[in-house]
Amino acid sequence: MLFEPQRKEYIDNEGPIRYLDGSGLLRPLDMPRRQLALMAVFVAIAALIGGVLLFNVLDSIQGSAARSQASVEENLAREVTYDLPSLPSLIQLDDASIKQSFADAGFTTYEPSPSEDGAGFELVKLPSDVSLAEAGLLYQQGVANLDAPDAARLLNGSWTFTVERENALGMRLRYTDFSSGGVDAAVEAAIAAEGFDVSTASETAVDEAGNTFRAGSIDVNGTTYSWRVSAIALSEVYSISGLPESATYVGVRITA
């Protein structure tokens, strides 16, 4: 059966021109009430589904942030001790004796890059409740790439000790202070922990890198050594969101 085109309706007008019938376009454009009611139901259902999805997403985000913060606080409240080494008591020991003293103290340590040339070494003391296997996985990611709970777990109770012997004898200790409450207090706490004489120390100052520091000298068995204690906001070292704003990064150095 051949397709027959729809017949066009025309209206007459004066003259030879004939116009198409446009009366159908003059009908009301309002939807019937029944269809309007059905559309309203669909809109309400869509709004309800969207609201539920939005609530679930927001609740998930807020819940995740709350859980992360709770985990950070829990890791910072752990009963771990720093057991900071006394640099003046180690400055005249050889590498083997230093490492043995750490082993005798029961420290769990990790040596990132073992040195065999006698030029010194670097060693990380782990928190007492963090195993070598767990620490290895965290360090493999890089401290700067850790989330706040993992960073708090790894940094709270740990420190890094470095010996330099290639040019001049020097020792350095670095750790994160979560308890002092600020850089000035962290400097004073480190000076007290190392047994340095604050009466002969310089006044508190800030160096070109933004570190707050004090410096002085100490006599060890007739030999004079220089020391320097500095601190800076941890956020200046690691951009890890969620750690306490008062956390500080402390460095202690003693040189011949």
Q: What does this molecule look like?
A:
This is Teichoic acid transporter. The chain crosses the membrane at residues 36-58. It comes from Enteroscipio rubneri. Keywords: Membrane, Transmembrane, Transmembrane helix. This protein is α+β, with helices and mostly antiparallel strands. It has a domain at 78-255. It is built from six helices and ten strands. It has helices at residues 33-76, 87-90, 95-104, 132-141, 148-155, 183-194; strands at 10-11, 19-20, 109-110, 120-125, 159-164, 170-177, 205-206, 212-220, 223-233, 248-255. The strands form two sheets. The protein has an eight-stranded antiparallel sheet with strand order 3-4-5-6-10-9-8-7. Strand 1 (10-11) and strand 2 (19-20) form a beta hairpin. Helix 1 packs parallel to helix 5 (148-155). The mean pLDDT is 85.
- Tally the helices: what do you get? 6
Total beta strand runs? 10
Write down the overall mean pLDDT: 85
Q: What fraction of residues sit in β-strands?
A: 15-25%
Q: What's the Cα radius of gyration?
A: 36 Å
Strands of the widest sheet, in order across it, are 3-4-5-6-10-9-8-7
The portion of residues assigned to helices is 25-40%
The largest pleated sheet is described as: 8 strands, antiparallel
Extract low-pLDDT stretches: none
- The global form is elongated
